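Feature request disguised as a bug report, sorry. It would help if multi-protein outputs had a clear separator. Right now it looks like this:
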Amino acid sequence: MVMKMSKKRVTSFDVARAAGVSRSVVSAILNGTPGIGVGEEKRQAVLDAIRELDYHVDSQARGMKIGKSECIAVYGNMDQPMFLQLLTGVNEACGALGYHVLLYNRKQLGMERQGLTVLYQQKRIDGVITLDSTNYADPEWAEAVKRAEMPYVSVEGYANESGTMSVLADYRQSVLAALDYLYRQDSDPSPLYVETYKGVSREGDAERSRREAYLEWCALHGAEPVILPVDLDREQEGRRLLAEAMESRSQLILLSNWTSGAVLAYRVAYQTAKRVGREVRIMSADNTYQLQEWLVPSMSAMEVPYRKMGQVAVEALMNQIDGKNQAAQAEFAKIRLKMVLKPGESA
């Protein structure tokens, strides 16, 4: 019987010999070691040797040497457009740091959240970022993270819970900025606040913050607050309530907490022959789906900066992984990012 001989594995020593440099130079180029000057000619020689010899870094050996896997896990729902926006920011930040990203989809069979701590204990990941709902605060998961001593950042979750680092959108600021934009021309009518919800969403941190900001703004400007709850599971009733509001005023200024509420207002305005941007001015305080440019007329909106939130979450996670900013980490800061005004023709 003839045994097939395995191909000898190419090492960094082979690369150094082929390039005519020392192994320390090869290591410096591969690791981007600061403070070690390597000329462009030597760098190119090493890169050429790596390509010609088909050299690959032994990630397991490297991980044992530096004590890191250089990989983080990101957990979320791939069906949500906001998760994809967040992932863009995470990928950009991790790419700049030479880190890999493991997608951990909760809908995949056997991929429950608790399995992330197992991956960390196996040293297959260095930390975890999750995209959560704005009212998410699971004490069991927080305790599991603490018990494993795993670097962790929640995006949107644990807004009012100590002990967990969170990157959050400033929903209060979004409403105040939106109302200031709507009233930049000294409009007289009091603003109608359409509070779109589904299930228990009205009780989440984001919705409470927005509602309180709306009431605060009205009190400051002497406006009469009018909150119109619209349940997305009872859309026909929501259409009727919006139609009554539009028909009762010759001029209506409408701010919706969600994009879906603003889109519904567009449809009702069409049905009641109200011109969006004129008889009824519409704005969304949360443009999660980034639809504003596709509507006619284009919609004014405050955009949740999920891409930026992903970048900031990576930075916060790396601080934990590297043991930096211990004082700040001890406080488990809640990092709030301002939302971005996207002007349109609807307001």
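(second protein starts here, but nothing in the output says so)
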Amino acid sequence: MPTRDALRTTGLLIAVGLAWLVAADAMAVEGPNLGRVATPEEIAGWDISIAPDGAGLPSGSGTPAQGALVYAAKCAACHGEKGAGKPNDQLVGGQGTLVGDQVAVKTVGSFWPYATTVFDYVRRAMPLNESKALNNDEIYAVTAYLLQLNGIIAETDTIDAATLPKVRMPNRDGFIPFTAGK
């Protein structure tokens, strides 16, 4: 037969357990009260994806010449002169290195399948320490400059929401298309 102390201890443990269950249930309903719900404006600031077909591209435009100026001011410190990749990521060259035994050099001109992806990446992630700091015209211009350096568009071309999705990247067919549900 249990002692009186054992019964008290068991009763106390049951009471604590029930209190914990009630508190956990309330927390599940109310949440842990950490942070707050993001505002529609905050969500819109990050809901900026650009599809390969250009859906989601904003207004604006840019030329390689304009992009050269933006690149020199805001990109060259990391990506090197004309996208050479020194000190960091190489953006130009690498065509033909994705096949065979040589080391693959994955650049805008050798690897990326869609020009719209270049725009999307620059828009959301560059410059590294100031992501999302470039305006739409600067992003179009830098994208045009990188495409021109890789021999994909001419020096005199202007890119915008209508022309960028029409740019055919050299490695467009180097990827297996994703189809939902298959």
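Even a blank line would do. Unrelated, but nice: Strands lie at 61-62, 159-160.
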